[in-house]
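Q: Entry one of two.
A:
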Amino acid sequence: MLRVLVQVLLADLRARPLPAISTIIGIACGLALVVAVEGAGSAAKDRFGRVHEQLSGRATHQLTAQERLTPDDFARVMSRPEVQAATPLITGLLPLTLAGRGGTFEDIVQVLGVDPFTIGDFLPTVQLTSPGGGTGSFTRFLVEPRTVVLPEAWARAQGLDVGDSMQLIASSRPVELEVVHLLPSSPVDAERPLALVDLATADELLGRGGRLDRIDLQLHEDADAESFALPGQIIERPRSRGERGAKLFAAFRINLLALSSLALLVGAGLAWGASQFNVIRRAPLLSRLRCLGTSRRALLQAVLSELALMGLVGSVIGVILGWLLAQVLVDHFAGTIRMLYGELRVSSVPFRPGTALLQVLGGMSVTLLSGALPAWEAATTPPRLVGLRSRAERLLARRVPILVVLSTVFVLLGLVAWAWPSRRIEPVFAAAGCFLAAAATLLPALMHVALPALRRQLERRGFFLPALATGTMSQGLSRTGPAAATLSAALAMALALLVMLASFKTEVMNWLDSVLQADVFVASAVEDRVPEEVIAIARSLPGLEDVEILRSHDAVFRDRLVVVFGVDGREVTTARSRSLEQGNWDEAWAGFLAGEVILSQPFATRFELGLGDELTLHESHPPQRVVGVVQDYALDRGYALMSAAAYLERFGDTGIDNLALTFTERAPGHSQEMATVLRQSLAKAPNGPFLLQVEDRATLREGARAAFDQTFVITKALELIAAGLALVGIANTLIALGLERRHELAVLRAIGSSSRQLLGLFCLEGLLLSTLAALAAIPLGLVLAALMIEEVHPRSFGWTFPWSWPIVSVVALLLAALAAGAIAAIVPGLRFGKTSLAAAFEEQS
């Protein structure tokens, strides 16, 4: 029996495939976005962790320190009986310029300084013997200075062979290394080309001053790992270090998943609308089947089987499209991560059959849940009432109090999730989901009250066509309410993103204006330092007013590595120009000059520190008092800022990170001119050439603006797709309403209404639907914006920023939504605009 019923329904579906196509498109598009974002995000995260683990090799633990480690530390850990193996490492990134190619930057190379006697225990593929089995390569690598070992595949691609030279930029100068050996396979699938050098060469290139970056260890299972770390040192498993790094961009991925899930919910709304559409269109067929003795259970199973089939097709298409989209999206995802957190290259997203199967099952479940209620109503309705609009509307009218109660419950749950005492981001998204559900349940109830009143007012004032459109919306509330709620959710998210991005961008640009007080900025490439000689070259520039020097160092605080900046300059204008979140500048500045510390807001949030608290960054020095907390978006993990005197006292001269030059001349274009002059001076310097990054203020600001826009372009794309799917839902709703009132439309045609007038009627209905959705989206969007600004960003990145109101953009968004609603009505308007009375009654018979 079930098989026969399913065949009957599928035959009807083949005759009129529009509802099935709508459902399949909605589920496919929504699921594709979720699959793409999840796939790209997982690939980036896995890539991050995998490369980190590969670089760690077979190490069970890693020892690091704020002052870096000494050879004595290596000797100390080697003497412990719990140590099976240990190897010292120096690692960093340096720019590559291949000899004979004009000295331009070709790539960034990961330099790994190793001990050739011990590295094989951790990276077995690093064998330095020659192909014939001799030890020539090993001897040269060990004895000769400035020799390098490269992976063969990368070296061949660059035209390098044993005996050739390659150039790295170290201390802002080109340093030539001789290739003495090629590894048949790379020790790790690294993000950057890997160059293996001995420890002495790495120390020279990276300026470590005889210290090590870390010591990799293989410990017995019962070893007390914590006992290996002295004060100021950290020992941890390689996986935990990789996981900590991966958490840096987890919040970005969660944000995109939340937005793509909205598109899936909108797709579910399309499936719900298509199910109702089928119930209405098939009213005669369903009535006949019931009259022929089909049980409610059998009919329900048949309708759900049909839904499952559509969900299966849509989910399979969605997973395939999502995987293909992920191949494109992953590059943008990795590019965003590079801008936010550092180097990451992901070439592709692997296809995982097990995950794909779960995603298909999830898509089918969403389809079944979306269409279950219309299917249940169709199966349990007496034969003579199947598809009657009056019964559905009476049911909805009786459920209005229930909808109000549900909406209240969702609001209360949302407030509880919002106020939940946790720094995790999941409760915030739970709150957003509750508020969306509250709006979806409340909007039909409000429309039930407001639309009849609006219709009466329009009739009194003689606006009969708008009154007719309003009456149609009111009489078909069981269809129009969910359609308006779906579009309202998409518009609310779009509005929230618009407000959040405008607020964030305005604040970031204002912050950049305050931070970029100098005219020209000089920085080293990657992890290199600016040579001291550059300061003298900069001071020789005409019209120079001040040189601000920035140094940085990693320190250990509460068993975590943190960044400390030391600033030196006559006025230190960059530091004083930043917005102070806690304290006042007079007291903060006095304390800063006296050796106290100023924290960035993310640092203070991360460690729950505030004005007056104490910070101990060096065990041999007294704690420093927090005299201020500044607003800053430079690092999401934050930093501690101290004067140059306090910094040098605690950490010594760790080298110069960058310089900020201020000139007396403020004419337009002068900073660009001075930047050009400085580049030329650095290229012609007696001890040079110095290859440094020299940028003027305007160039840096525009680059930051472009990076900001690039970071959030994907969010805008996802939001547009969700809104587009919601508008398709409006078109489906109007088609369903047109089928329900086909006879009414035929009568209007019979009494003289033109096709153009009926088209106008449908456009008015679409405009009314989108208007109601836009009105509901305004308060909901502001609530979602508050969640993003007040909770998501502080919990994810430690940033807070004031609200900005992009009135023009918001108005443009809402007007575009109204216009789109009217445009979405064109298809059903054209379809039913030529309905004739004879055809309508012929269909009824």
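Q: Entry two of two.
A:
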Amino acid sequence: MSQGVRSLDPVSVEVVTTPYGRPAFTPLRDAVAAAKAGDALAPVTVVVPSNHVGITARRLLASGALGSLGAAGVGVAAVGFLTAYRLAELLGAAPLAAAGRRPVSTPVIAAALRRALADDAGMFAPVANHPATERALVASYTELSDLSPDGMAALAGAGRRAHDVVDLCRRARQVLAADWYDESDLTAAAVASVERADPARLAADLGHVVIHLPQDLLRRQAQLLTALAARLPTTVVVGVTGRADADAGVVRTLRRLGIDSPAALTGGAGPAVGSTDRVGGGHVAAAPPPLPVSPAGTRILTASDADDEVRAAVRRVIDAVRAGTPLERIGILFGSPHPYGRLLHEHLAAAGIPRNGAAVRPLAASALGRTVLDLLALPDHDYRRGDVLGLLARAADGTAAAPTAAWERLSRQAGVVAGRADWDNLLVQIVEHHERLAHDIEARGDERDSGHARHARRQAERAGRLRELVLAIIDGIGAARARSVPWAERVPWLRDLVDLVVGGERALADWPADEVKAAEKIDAALERLAGLDGIAGPASLDVFRRTLELELDADIGRVGRFGEGVLVGPLSFAVGLDLDLIVVLGMAEGTLPAPVRDDALLPDADRRRTDGELDLRRERVGRDHRRVLAALAAADRHLLCLPRGDLRASSQRVPSRWLSEVACALEGTPLPSDRIVGHTAPWIEGVPSFAHGVSHCSFPATAQEYRLRTGGRGVVDPRTDQGAAVVHARRSRAFTRFDGNLAGVGVPSPIDAVVSATRLEGWARCPFAYFGQRLLEVQPVDDPSQQLEMSALDRGSLIHEVLEQFITDVLARPTERQPRPDELWSDDDHALIRRIAEQVCARYESRGLTGRPVFWR
């Protein structure tokens, strides 16, 4: 029996060391065949680090690519592939559900922490209500839930900050204990179920347990697997890289399982990798495998920046497919999701290449997610016109039911800037203006003007609809901000408000499938928020919004189906893959490895006091190294990509230390990292620029690249030629049609008719502007928010209106009361013109024509 495996009936644990990639599935095949012992229906449970590893293993075993499983007809029937979390769920969820406890979520944890902060925030009192404090504590709670009581006590003794973090998390956990359970509670329930289970029933349900390629198991997950290993025959297939820093996480996992690390993981000498050792006897060591690269199968590609790096990678994928490599046998992995995740999906979609893998967009980036968060953010800038119209345009997508383009022009014309008063009073005036205009046109009785009258009526109707909609939003949010209400009331209120903006379920039905899926997840998230009343009590709108943002940080879900198209995902996907071609992006310092930043609440100095129960932040470098080596072992052919710079930050990039190691192995001699970019060898390729990559690639990846390529080679392409003509004309000194030259277009010259000096001046200044404004009657609409002072035109109109009304009033007096030409204005006249001026100025101000108040005063 292994040291550290506690059991009433000791059961043997077998440890097998293996390199990553295809060789790792051979001991898995042997373990399954041995467990079945010729019985095709004998149960076997394979615990895998992730779901895609389980799918890969199942397909490989079922395909026969690894050879026979032993006796005829054994196959993969009754072989289950589960992650450690899923195994805990199967064993422990039922008793917790029977006790009336529900699985915890991030907003639930945040609510419990807010309650703990409200009771006693400790040293966090000055920042207790800050969103960053809440997010940091939620992350700490998740980590601390894996600590033992001794580990918690040791961490609390590290200092006041660590003590207060531990205390807050403990009190939050007490709040949740009665009605909720987290992964730690789930695993504890699963361990209890294993310990209570009848050994024969447990063996019949799970059979032989194979722990395949364990990575960084949490302490609670290791406890569950240890409990199973104490009762069921267990085989542990351990992936080995031969590098101490890369294997450190696996060594820690084995210790948590109560297994002494095989010599292959500690650098001892011994038989080849792949040998076995029944724990409790002598260790079997293995020589570290060589770096799995070769000049024939490995290529290093350098590009100017991340964007060009992704374009070049997509072209190489197309070249591989054209050479016969199936899409499902290709994987593209990245060390950092920013910017590679979004760029990869966009460029693969533009190239028409199907893909599957991890989603890179959170729910907050979906159409409904943006609508919900933007809606709740409107009060931040007092319902600014641009924010409101932008929200309506994104939500309604400019449909006939929501004429957002017309609303944009009407709100500008009305002079709306921000605030309820603007949306109410100014839109009322624009409605009245268009109604008066329609009435005046109809009063003339000219049938030829009937279309103008209908247009004016339609504009008045649109402005009225916009006013009603925006005021409903403003009043709805204003009422919700005024008081704290239960969570169960906040959720239906938000749904009604979103339906008002989006248009209800009928509008959602027209959205793309991925947006509908995101909308369903957002609806489920709102349902979870409705159940927080038992933890947090009534919530203000700000707290509700902050908690919803936590929920919408979750990703939308997988893209595509595993095995259909190119696999796209983070470098963590590398473990357990078996492919023909692996592409690794971003192999530069700062991406692989990513910079190590200490935790603000629990720095590494405090984490060390837990005696290995908490992972150190600096250990992430070794984890990244292991994943890079696993990626190299997952395929016979590799494309390792290096961005030479970052055009977004105007900086240069340094090759990753692991790329330098590969370059030295390919060269056969040491090669300094600063010489990799300019090095000449068959295994390295540089893409000088986007233009060079397009013109020298063997096959363009997208339609845009094809057009650019054909245009550069003199092949006629109408769209490319038109674009080139515009660029050349604008760069030349000639006066062309792209600069406003309208010769030969048939535009009438203003000198052929009697025109004003203003029109003539406009034509001389820019004929194209004259054509657009005077002949096509295309008039620009100014942005009211950019109007600082009253325009000269409005100022002149105001003065003329005041003087006209004043003179009209004076002339309406009896002749004997009218002043003579040489007589000065009386005090009553001065009072009259001031009174008239104040009335006219108030009217202009209500119409939003006077600019910013500071200048108007």
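A: Comment on entry two: Residues 1-10, 268-286 have pLDDT under 50 and may be disordered. The first strand starts at residue 13 and ends at 19.
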